[in-house]
Amino acid sequence: MKGLGVSQGIGIGKAFIIEKKVVNISVNQTDDTDNEVRRFHNALENCKKETEELYIKTLNNIGEKEAMIFKSHEMILEDEVFISDVETKIKNEKVNAEFAVNEIAISYIKMFESINDEYLRERADDVKDIMNRVLSELMGINTIDFSKMEKDSVLVVKDLTPSDTAQLDRTKVSAMITEIGGKTSHAAIMARILGIPTVVGLEGIVDNVKSDDIIICDGKSGKVIINPSEKQKQYYSNKRKKELNIIKQLKKQIGLPTVTKDGFTVSLSSNISSPRDVDSALENDAEGIGLFRSEFLFMNRNCQPTEEEQFNEYKEVLVKMKEKPVIIRTMDIGGDKEVSYMDIPKEMNPFLGYRAIRVCLVDTDMFKTQLKAILRASVYGNAKIMFPMISTVQELKDAKKIYEQAKDELRQKKIPFKDNIEIGIMIEIPSAAIISDILAKEVDFFSIGTNDLIQYTMAVDRMNSKLAHLYSQYHPALLRLIKSIITNAHNAGIWVGMCGEAAGDPKLIPVFVGMGLDEFSMNSPSILRARYIIRDLNKKEMDKIADDVINIETAMEVEKYLSCIFSESEIESRLCGNMKYNY
């Protein structure tokens, strides 16, 4: 059988068939409509908390782009029209909350399913996922049960939502097969996030498989074999061994210096969002924390964290990292990161609005509290401070002035702190990139945030599927900006890091080495592969390639050029060494 492979890898194991419980929604008349509205809002709030947890978990483990799945789910839960429609139905028709939610959800789903665009049509699945979770909250039930799953199970199910996928015990799942879904479905994206081989769109698979049948699932080709022959088992077992061997070989990079063949040394750091993420960073031999997203200390709560609470969080990270550098980015609230207790108005263009340093320069007490907490924690390790969303020199000077005030207040209270902490800024706005030669005189380091720099440079909303072809980290305009930032920083005698997703791109790492980037910060699982790539490079050769790519006309041509030079399949072949596999 053949479906659509959406997450690469080989899975072999016994079938575990999931038949979702059918939720029967009945209408109940009620005079207490206020109570039904309260029940509805309580269910929404519980789902929002769960969704925020999934967002943070995904952001920590994989990356920002993938985590945005759950931001789109939050938008549905907060949609004022949807909420109003449900409330109106409850009050006008005097019906129970479950019935009202289900009726309104059906109308929304039908609307999405009627759209021709594949990406938008598949958003009907997201509405179904969210609404099922709201209904489950209202009814106090769980529609799917993974508790009986054994190790190395191949999950077979008609449909799998992102929320379902997030509940899986990754250690027990060898592969997943669904009857419904496409390459752009959020469940497919979540499968790639979790690294689970997955085939979707295999119609009739649930009826064709019995519990405990042995199944082979090839997540790259989309091929599924039920009760394979011994020869087939051997073939796919060898393919899987190759994949596992690559992981084993990468582990050998632990403890090695990140230096090119001709002696150019860089630092490989990890992006984190909480002290819990430090263990993964250390397991993957991170040489520091290149981005501690401190705003997550301010989320999922009803009030601002106190100075003491923040101090303890920063201290824990610094103690765990010992003398390795830890760059703490001051809170980047706003944009896609909403905080209920802060007075941040709804905006037409939140990514271009009141966010990050702009909030901090208005709410100076909150900003100063955070700076004092970081300063106090600094005595326990190698802390550095980074300001986000800087677009002007004046913003930077104002931030540094508040930083000095925080230091003065600690001195007056005779509270110890390190007085020589390095101060840096994120370069994520084109204006900052263009005047980076001036900004470099005011700071100790830059960190390039490519995610927003692409968005702002290209004037592209990265959540807009119709503009996805314009949002590219290979665009020559972006690469030219990055080169100028690095050059301006080095001319001023300061170092430059990068903490956007481009920093972990195997095809771009050699380019950034050629440009002279000093530090790469990425999600922890990418570090060892990045080290392997860098240790196989010659810096002088990369200089030439870096010069070449900024003169190529289009992003597509840049990516094609780099794919020819830095083939991932060639890297994998080298990692496998002399091991022989009989295919």
According to CATH, the fold-level topology of the largest domain is: TIM Barrel
Helix tally equals 24
Largest sheet: 8 strands, parallel, barrel
Which CATH-level-2 architecture of the largest domain?
Alpha-Beta Barrel
The CATH H-level superfamily of the largest domain is Phosphoenolpyruvate-binding domains
Structural class: alpha/beta
CATH class identity of the largest domain: Alpha Beta
- Assign a percent range to the helix content: 40-55%
How many DSSP-defined strands?
15
As residue ranges, the low-confidence spans are 578-583
Share of β-strand residues: 5-15%
- In one word, what is the shape? globular
Radius of gyration: 25 Å
In words, what does this structure look like?
By secondary structure, the protein is an alpha/beta fold. It has three domains: about 100 residues, Glucose Oxidase, domain 1 (3-Layer(bba) Sandwich), CATH 3.50.30.10; about 110 residues, PtsI, HPr-binding domain (Enzyme I, Chain A, domain 2), CATH 1.10.274.10; about 325 residues, Phosphoenolpyruvate-binding domains (TIM Barrel), CATH 3.20.20.60. About 45% of the residues lie in helices and about 15% in strands. The strands form two sheets. Strands 8-9-10-11-12-13-14-15 form an eight-stranded parallel beta barrel, surrounded by four helices. Strands 1-5-4-3-2-6-7 form a seven-stranded mixed sheet. Helix 15 links the parallel strand 11 and strand 12. Helix 1 runs antiparallel to helix 2, helix 4 packs antiparallel against helix 6 and helix 12 packs parallel to helix 14. The radius of gyration is 25 Å and the shape is globular. It starts with a strand and ends in a 7-residue tail after the last helix.
